[in-house]
């Protein structure tokens, strides 16, 4: 029987050696974005509450819309102490993406908010929230040199599913020009990837727009990646359409 829990389905997809691609949602509050993500071949929605002012109701609408077209919705929360983590999971989010995790202790605290007893301290909303996922995906973002140094300890935490490298912020933390990829940055990715795989966990990255480097990371085992934001994807398509028409006259 097909597992109805979106977090478990997404985890199974990646464990089956498939690369899960996500659309970052920041600009739109329209439920139709879930259908667009599905039709364009994305595997999950990445609802970004860290960098966009979503209301709780808007987030819930997007999660329910995603469930309606059978695409998992993950929520990047504001931090490992975000009080809305449980709310998002109760509505049916496939999991949460935790920004800027720098230690095993921070990861363990976040896991405790996501897991039901005896594995955590999340309160059960059943039967009032039948869409709630009791096996959510827990994604820890590595975005600083401290996070890279402690990647093994973070990956070792029971309940952490995946280490996700935030390339933009990690480059900033390392003082690296965004247009270059020096040896030190490549080593940071490899160190994080090794920490995840050695602990039997998944890994991925976002913010890397160089297709050759993305392909290299996939070859090295990355199974969780974002394509771009809804705003950037719309701008790219609109710009190409206008350029095509302008070229005709």
From TrEMBL:
Family statement drawn from the similarity comment of this UniProt entry: Belongs to the HpcH/HpaI aldolase family.
Record flagged with keyword Ligase: no
Annotated PANTHER family: 2-KETO-3-DEOXY-L-RHAMNONATE ALDOLASE, PHOSPHOENOLPYRUVATE CARBOXYLASE FAMILY PROTEIN
Name listed for the protein in its UniProt record: 2-keto-3-deoxy-L-rhamnonate aldolase RhmA
Cross-referenced InterPro entries: Aldolase/citrate-lyase_domain, HpcH-HpaI_aldolase, Pyrv/PenolPyrv_kinase-like_dom, Pyrv_kinase-like_dom_sf
Gene Ontology MF: a single term: aldehyde-lyase activity
GO cellular component, one term: cytoplasm
Lineage, top ranks: Bacteria, Pseudomonadati, Pseudomonadota, Alphaproteobacteria, Rhodobacterales
Keyword field: Lyase, Metal-binding
Organism: Palleronia aestuarii
Residue ranges of domain HpcH/HpaI aldolase/citrate lyase in the record: 33-230
Iron is among the record's keywords: no
Any single Pfam family the record assigns to this protein: HpcH_HpaI
């Amino acid at each position: 029987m097909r597992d109805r829990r979106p977090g478990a389905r997404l985890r199974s997809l990646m464990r089956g050696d498939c690369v899960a691609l996500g659309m970052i949602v920041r600009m739109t509050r329209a439920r139709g974005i879930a259908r667009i993500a599905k039709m364009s071949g994305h595997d999950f929605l990445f609802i970004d509450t860290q960098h966009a002012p979503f209301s709780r109701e808007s987030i819930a609408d997007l999660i329910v819309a995603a469930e309606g077209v059978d695409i998992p919705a993950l929520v990047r929360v504001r931090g490992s102490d975000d009080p809305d983590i449980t709310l998002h999971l109760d509505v049916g989010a496939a999991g949460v993406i935790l920004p800027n995790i720098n230690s095993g202790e921070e990861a363990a605290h976040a896991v405790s908010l996501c897991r039901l007893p005896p594995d955590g301290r999340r309160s059960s909303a059943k039967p009032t929230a039948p869409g709630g996922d009791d096996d959510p995906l827990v994604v820890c973002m590595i975005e600083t040199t401290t996070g890279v140094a402690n990647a093994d300890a973070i990956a070792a935490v029971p309940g952490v599913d995946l280490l996700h490298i935030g390339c933009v912020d990690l480059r900033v933390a390392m003082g690296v020009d965004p247009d270059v990829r020096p040896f030190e940055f490549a080593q940071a990715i490899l160190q994080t990837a090794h920490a995840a795989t050695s602990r039997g966990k998944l890994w991925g990255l976002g913010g890397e727009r160089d297709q050759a480097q993305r392909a290299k990371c996939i070859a090295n085992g990355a199974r969780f990646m974002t394509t771009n934001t809804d705003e950037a994807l719309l701008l790219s398509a609109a710009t190409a359409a206008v350029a095509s028409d302008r070229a005709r006259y």
